[in-house]
Design goal:
It is found in: Secreted. The protein is α+β, with helices and mostly antiparallel strands and 239 residues long. 36% of the residues lie in helices and 31% in strands. The protein has 2 domains: 92 residues; 137 residues, Sandwich (Jelly Rolls). The strands form 2 sheets. Strands 2, 4, 5, 7, 8 and 10 form a 6-stranded antiparallel β-sheet that branches. A 5-stranded antiparallel β-sheet has the order 3-1-11-6-9, with helices on one face.
Length: 239
């Protein structure tokens, strides 16, 4: 169980590191562009000194220098502010303000029920940040297009030949009412071990209005743990 939790944390930190690497790359490009602009202005200044009149050049050179350095100073200050914002938004283990996440835990007041050949888990909100992700009935709904980290785990407490779960999405744009399978976790049970977890996680691209749900193939003898750290389902916004 601890291994699964560490794996989930590792996946989230990996996605955050990719995002930070992208932001650093953007800032480096901005800095290179700034250096190019300064170099271009200085070259124009030198060419003006060669081809212009000396009397006019002596009067305008200081003004050109001030203009160039004022723009450079303004750009550097803007660059510095952006770096500080990036550092403050991701420092100290805090989530950036534009992140949204929504983990769901099993609702102990309502037992899982099997409508047909699947088992539906009744979820309740554990924690929520931002307005990009919300819960509607027994599903998670995203309100913006983008990339999301989707994860889920189920702890089975009985012997079963095959144990697992499926995470699927319902599109808000397609006319068909058929879900798309995003993640699947299946593993064989053992006769010796009665407690066995099945964990899945992945990064997916979702559209505004898409709904996600976790389903378990119905196994009459299979018992599901009701503990919050054993059975859960959640989504984290990555951009």
């Amino acid at each position: 169980m601890l291994y699964k939790a560490l794996f989930s944390l590792t996946a989230i930190m990996f996605c955050l590191s990719l995002f930070l690497a992208h932001r650093v790359s953007v800032l480096e490009k901005d800095f290179q562009k700034l250096r190019g602009d300064i170099s271009q202005q200085l070259n124009q200044q030198r060419s003006g000194g060669v081809h212009g009149k000396p009397a006019k050049m002596s009067k305008t050179r200081e003004g050109m220098k001030q203009s160039v350095f004022q723009r450079a100073q303004s750009s550097l200050e803007s660059f510095s502010r952006r770096v500080k914002r990036e550092q403050s938004s991701c420092g100290g283990g805090a989530w950036p303000r534009f992140y949204s996440f929504l983990p769901l835990f099993l609702n102990k007041c309502v037992l899982p029920f099997p409508p047909g050949n699947i088992t539906v888990i009744p979820w309740t909100v554990s924690a929520q940040r931002g307005s990009t992700i919300s819960q509607r009935e027994n599903r998670i709904v995203v309100q913006e297009d983008g990339y999301y980290l989707v994860f889920g785990q189920v702890l089975f407490e009985s012997q079963s030949t095959v144990m697992g779960h499926v995470i699927q999405s319902w599109s808000s744009t397609e006319a068909e009412t058929r879900p798309t399978e995003l993640l699947r976790c299946l593993q064989d049970g053992t006769e010796e071990a009665f407690d066995n977890t099945c964990y899945s996680a992945g990064t997916v691209h979702l559209l505004q209005g898409d709904e996600l749900e976790m389903l378990i193939p119905f196994r009459p003898p299979a018992l599901i743990s009701l503990e919050a750290d054993s059975t859960f389902f959640g989504v984290v916004q990555l951009n």
